[in-house]
Write a structure and sequence with these properties.
The structure holds 2 protein chains of 2 kinds. Chain A contains 14 helices and no strands. By secondary structure, chain A is mainly α. In chain A, helix 3 (41-58) crosses helix 5 and helix 5 (95-131) packs antiparallel against helix 6 (133-147). The longest helix of chain A has 37 residues, at 95-131. Chain A is elongated and about 75 Å long. The relative contact order of chain A is 0.17. Chain B folds into 2 domains: 4-91 and 171-320, P-loop containing nucleotide triphosphate hydrolases (Rossmann fold), CATH 3.40.50; 102-170, no CATH class. In chain B, the strands form 2 sheets. Chain B has an 8-stranded mixed β-sheet, with helices on both faces. Chain B has a 4-stranded antiparallel β-sheet with strand order 2-1-4-5. In chain B, a hairpin with a 2-residue loop joins strand 4 (62-71) and strand 5. The N and C termini of chain B lie far apart (49 Å). Classes of the chains: A mainly alpha, B alpha/beta. The A-B interface holds A 4-5, 7-12, 14-18, 20, 23, 26, 28-29, 133, 195-197, 199-207, 210, 214-215, 218-219, 221 and B 54, 56, 60, 84-90, 92-94, 96, 98, 100-107, 115-116, 119-120, 141-143, 146, 150-156, 158-159, 164, 167, 177, 189.
Chain lengths: 308, 328
């Protein structure tokens, strides 16, 4: 199984007792992981991009020179200029400002949906894996049921029935996407619960809940963090796709996806290349960055790729 | 009052081939300040006996079929689950064979000790920290403060085993179960750990149930010895009697297979064969398949555990005097 355990089990070649020698040269686990992560150039580039994107979204009100929803109909589809850095859209709104504010919504959807999905998936996966037997069978059949929903049609149907608001969208994403994490965590727990430290914890009188969450779960955090990172990218992409179809977050609230909706059309492609290009580029860079960072974390946390 | 009194304990497993009894009618008792060793090969049921006492017989499939386990008079077998959570770790604690794997790799040493103190003694985190450091000093760590924030992989096997002992002793347990506590350690460290166990059991006046296959460890630490074979007790004696007058052929075989410094033994003897699987036990005496003295009666009939000398019992017709060694 991939987890942090093997890193930690690497026999320490140390003087058997109290000597202070060698102690300073100990690299803590975290430092090993950070060093490993920093060796991966793509992951570092991804991380830098993400930090920039997240900061620009957080400080959007201070960075944007225009109101993102202010329409200046005289400046429709204006090319990039000193005043409108990335040009304007078909209603004369400043693209740069809109992209900054859209980033807030897109990232918020990505992170919230990830938190929801990972929380549900981790809790159910942990319970299934730890208890096994009938509990496991019931939870895993639930996973099978949720996986077999045709997501995109279900989303379209739900959106058709209810007005798609931000929190409903996040909830639907979370409720449909926890299954991967659940399977992953279950697998980790199936192997981790056999380990002797779990038996040791039981002999110390710890309750199942305490063993699951404070003893076993920290051992499974590596794969969960990787899955969570990749999930944020996937949710941003999913939100963009839905918004592009007009089924996600509704205008005038900007998201990267729904900015593309109004950028469709041959005329715009030909005469205002900046309008579809920049929101598209943001989606591309953000999702790619999340994937790079996720892959970097996977390698950094995987003991099999570890050199010491 | 007797600290631990195990009466007619039977532990069974349900398998595809039916129910197998891995612990069969085992009775013994441990007093405060006393060390009782359970000796036997792999598969003799000694570890399963200790897990039964802990109430941690592997699930699903395993269960205590009958018998009583009295800890200071109150029965653990019939006790509700919630009561066992309070007893484990506080009244009974356990040290394991593998110090490499019985500590949680991603938690610091300090966290693992403090957690138990917070849980059972309801200490605050800062009080638990102080007490943990005190415990680490007590098991012989000079630099306990810095150890508190270290991870298990930074320690050697012997150090980890001492940490395990510190955790086990954190709530001042009445009974310490040590399941092969020195098997995975090198010889010099073994001596340290045995010394530590002996000193601590005297300090805390707790009873020790020592599970081992190492007769050297038994001689070092135990007061009373129980020899188990194929789920049954085959001999029970005070440690001196057992070493001087082993009654059961199995015990004698175990003794003969230990290298000695005195005497000019050229070859070590071994007991041929393996412990029979619990679902394919011989009809008569369970040791009859490997016993050098086995006779027709042994194959026909199962002997019972009977007192043969004062304070010493054995499960053998030979020791009872119902059969005699054939001249060879």
């Amino acid at each position: 199984m991939t987890s942090m355990k093997t890193i930690l089990e690497t026999p320490a070649t140390l003087p058997p007792d109290n000597s202070a020698a060698g102690m300073s040269s100990h690299r803590s686990l975290l430092r090993v992981i950070v060093a490993k992560f920093l060796q991966n150039k793509l992951a570092v580039i991804g991380l830098i991009c993400l930090v920039l994107i997240i900061f620009s979204a957080l400080f959007a009100p201070w960075l944007a020179q225009h109101d993102p929803n202010f329409q200046n109909l005289r400046l429709r589809l204006a090319p990039p200029s000193a005043d409108n850095w990335l040009g304007t859209d078909h209603l004369g709104r400043d693209l740069f400002s809109r992209i900054l504010f859209a980033g807030r919504v897109s990232l918020f959807v990505g992170f919230s949906a990830m938190l929801g999905a990972v929380t549900i998936g981790t809790a159910l996966g942990a319970i299934a894996g730890y208890y096994g037997g009938r509990v496991d069978a019931v939870i895993m059949r639930l996973v099978d049921v949720v996986i077999s929903f045709p997501n995109i049609f279900l989303l379209i149907a739900l959106v058709a029935i209810f007005q798609p608001t931000l929190d409903k969208l996040i909830m639907v994403f979370a409720l449909l996407s926890w299954t991967g994490t659940a399977r992953l965590v279950r697998g980790e727990f199936l192997s981790l619960k056999q380990r002797e430290f779990v038996l040791a914890a039981r002999t110390l009188g710890m309750s199942p809940a305490r063993i699951i969450f404070s003893q076993i779960l920290p051992n499974a955090m590596g794969p969960i963090i990787v899955a969570a990172t990749l999930a944020v990218g996937a949710f941003i992409l999913a939100e963009s796709a839905l918004s592009f179809l007009g089924l996600g977050v509704q205008p005038p609230t900007a998201t990267w996806g729904n900015m593309l909706t109004s950028a469709q059309g041959v005329r715009i492609f030909r005469e205002a290349w900046w309008y579809p290009t920049f929101p598209g580029l943001m989606i591309f860079i953000t999702v790619l960055s999340f994937n790079f960072v996720g892959d970097g974390l996977r390698d950094a946390l995987d003991p099999k790729v570890l050199e010491r | 009052m007797t600290l631990l009194d195990v009466k007619n304990l039977c532990t069974e497993f349900k398998s595809k081939r039916g129910v197998v009894r891995v612990v069969d009618d085992v009775s013994f008792s441990v007093e405060r300040g006393e060390t009782l060793a359970i000796v036997g090969e792999s598969g003799s049921g000694k570890s399963m006996t200790s897990l039964s006492i802990m109430g941690l017989v592997p699930q699903p499939g395993g269960r205590i079929a009958s018998g009583q386990i009295l800890l200071e008079g109150s029965d653990l077998v019939s006790a509700p689950k919630e009561a066992l959570y309070q007893i484990r770790g506080a009244d009974i604690a356990m040290v394991f064979q593998e110090p490499m794997t019985s500590l949680n790799p991603v938690l610091t040493i300090g966290d693992q000790i403090a957690e138990v103190l917070i849980y059972h003694k309801h200490l605050s985190r800062s009080a638990a920290r102080l007490e943990s450091i005190e415990l680490l000093k007590r098991v012989g760590f000079a630099r306990a403060e810095s150890l508190y924030d270290e991870y298990p992989h930074q320690l050697s096997g012997g150090m980890r085993q001492r940490v395990m002992i510190a955790i086990a002793l954190s709530c001042n347990p009445k009974l310490l179960i040590a399941d092969e506590p020195t098997t995975a350690l090198d010889v010099t460290v073994q001596a340290q750990i045995l010394d530590l166990l002996r000193r601590l059991s005297a300090d805390y006046d707790s009873g020790i149930l020592l599970i081992t296959h190492d007769l050297g460890v038994v001689a070092e630490l135990a007061d009373q010895v129980v020899v188990m074979y194929a789920g049954q007790i085959v001999e029970q004696a005070a440690v001196a009697d057992l070493f001087d007058y082993p009654q059961h052929p199995y015990t004698q075989g175990l003794m003969a297979s230990v290298p000695r410094l005195d005497g000019d033994v050229k070859r070590l003897t071994s007991i041929a064969g393996n412990v029979p699987s619990p679902d394919a036990l011989p009809r008569g005496c369970r040791f009859s398949t490997r016993c050098p003295h086995a006779q027709a009666l042994c194959v026909e009939q199962a002997p019972e555990l009977k007192p043969v000398r004062s304070g010493q019992s054995a499960r053998c017709f030979l020791a009872e005097g119902r059969i005699f060694k054939e001249a060879s």
